[in-house]
């Protein structure tokens, strides 16, 4: 091993877990020759389009009678919401750049709202075994909540298309914003078009907030099982693992020694051998090695149980670890990500939405507009 490699390994060592997996559970389950088949049977099919994957998951969920599909609901939606966030922020900034001097304050509020939403970059993910969902009577509740989520998503998509359509109208009517986001040359009716753009963007922001709150409600319903003393709570164990995997991933990304192709990894002969190697890496605190092995496996078996290149490597490792630790056992769950932070984000976003609504209404006093604005005082249920 070269001096550079030794230095890199030392950098990763500081992010390992001192007693990983030795807290709540004690001894890990023995290796199973069928574990990769179990993962393949229950894991949702990999799909490059996050929304298509979500719709496919809903169709499977409605026919789910044993909970094997339902347990992945939180993973699939988290990936979808991450995708929505990126497009939402881009659209918000693009639209805000077409607002002139009189509406610049509203544009700044829109950008602040989108930035606040991205500060909660990941929805919390709930890990639970299928038997627990069934025994606690949560499967039907989850199905109903998912249908409610889909209604909010459909409305969001409709409002997104309305905003995109009107933004295209604005771009075709007058010149785009300058570098500082201020329009320097506008036709006579441009302010009216900009105010209409504000209204549509407001409705879009408000709808995304409702979608976010609906997911909070779903998390809260399932998280109620945490009060049952007979269940094993792995939340702390998985949260610690996620934290250290994220830190190890950052080291890999920042160090050219860890770039693709810089490390000679063994080529696995089977998915089972690969999984066993990853589990050993996690057990021995070799987190950087586990992350590199995920990348190799995605190259060897694209869109298989290791996910696609667009999937979060840390999330994949967390899922493999949880499924292995609960193999042949029931009554286990873990909430990774603070539900309290979700409540705070929802409250702050609601306050921003109310400020934006009031600013638009004041601007309307100078223009006669008939477009309906939803009342921000009526919100979805948050934790």
Automatic annotation (TrEMBL):
It comes from the Eukaryota. One of its GO terms (biological process) is cell morphogenesis. This is cDNA FLJ58597. Residues 2-383 form the Protein furry C-terminal domain. It holds the Pfam family Fry_C. InterPro entries: Fry_C, Furry/Tao3/Mor2. PANTHER family: FURRY-RELATED, PROTEIN FURRY HOMOLOG.
């Amino acid at each position: 091993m070269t001096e550079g490699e030794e230095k890199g390994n030392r950098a990763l060592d500081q992010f390992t877990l001192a007693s990983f997996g030795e807290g709540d559970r004690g001894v890990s389950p023995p290796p199973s020759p069928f574990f990769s088949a179990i993962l393949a049977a229950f894991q949702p099919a990999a799909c490059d389009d996050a929304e298509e994957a979500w719709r496919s998951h809903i169709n499977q969920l409605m026919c789910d009678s044993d909970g094997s599909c339902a347990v992945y609901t939180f993973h699939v939606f988290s990936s979808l919401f991450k995708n929505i966030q990126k497009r939402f922020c881009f659209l918000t900034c693009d639209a805000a750049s077409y607002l002139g001097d009189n509406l610049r304050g509203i544009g700044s509020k829109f950008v602040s709202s989108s930035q606040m939403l991205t500060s909660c970059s990941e929805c919390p993910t709930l890990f639970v075994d299928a038997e627990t969902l069934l025994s606690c009577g949560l499967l039907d509740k989850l199905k109903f909540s998912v249908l409610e989520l889909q209604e909010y998503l459909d409305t969001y998509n409709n409002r997104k298309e309305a905003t995109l359509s009107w933004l295209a109208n604005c771009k075709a009517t007058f010149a785009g914003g300058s570098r500082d986001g201020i329009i320097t040359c506008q036709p006579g009716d441009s302010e009216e078009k900009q105010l209409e753009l504000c209204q549509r963007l407001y409705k879009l922001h408000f709808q995304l907030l409702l979608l976010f709150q609906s997911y909070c409600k779903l998390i809260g319903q399932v998280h109620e099982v945490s009060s049952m003393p007979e269940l094993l709570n792995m939340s702390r164990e998985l949260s610690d693992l996620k934290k250290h995997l994220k830190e190890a991933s950052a080291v890999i990304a920042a160090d050219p020694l860890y770039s693709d192709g810089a490390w000679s990894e063994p080529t696995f002969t089977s998915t089972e051998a690969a999984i066993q190697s990853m589990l050993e890496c996690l057990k021995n605190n070799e987190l950087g090695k586990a992350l590199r092995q995920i990348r190799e496996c995605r190259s060897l078996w694209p869109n298989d149980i290791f996910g696609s290149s667009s999937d979060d490597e840390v999330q994949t490792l967390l899922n493999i670890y949880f499924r292995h630790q609960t193999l042949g056992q029931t009554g286990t769950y873990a909430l990774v990500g603070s539900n309290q932070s979700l409540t705070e984000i929802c409250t702050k976003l609601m306050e921003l939405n109310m400020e934006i609504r009031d600013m638009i209404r004041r601007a309307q006093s100078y223009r006669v507009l008939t477009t309906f604005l939803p009342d921000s005082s009526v919100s979805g249920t948050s934790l």
